[in-house]
Specification:
By secondary structure, the protein is mainly alpha-helical. It has helices spanning about 5-15, 35-50, 65-75. Helix 1 packs across helix 3 (about 65-75).
């Protein structure tokens, strides 16, 4: 399962937003995620995947960008 799909499932689980309503290339802020919601979502991601997200990429705005970072962190853990 791709991180993107897993993130869409997590958003559905936490916020009730259907995966079909989440364009991976659209701004998450346009879907109602303010800064606090994004921080809370990052904590949920860290808990779900048992990873630590980097603090050095504050410009993540889309679900696709977030999934790419999750994939990168997960790949780094397996090496």
């Amino acid at each position: 399962m791709s991180s993107l799909k897993e993130l869409q499932d997590l958003i559905h689980e936490k916020y009730g937003i259907e995966a079909s309503a989440l364009d991976p290339q659209a701004s998450m802020r346009e879907k109602g995620f303010d800064s606090l919601a994004l921080v809370e979502f990052v904590f949920a991601i860290e808990d779900r995947f048992a990873i630590t997200m980097p603090d050095d990429d504050p410009d993540i705005d889309t679900l696709a960008q977030l999934a790419a970072v999750v994939d990168k962190v997960r790949a780094a853990q397996t090496t």
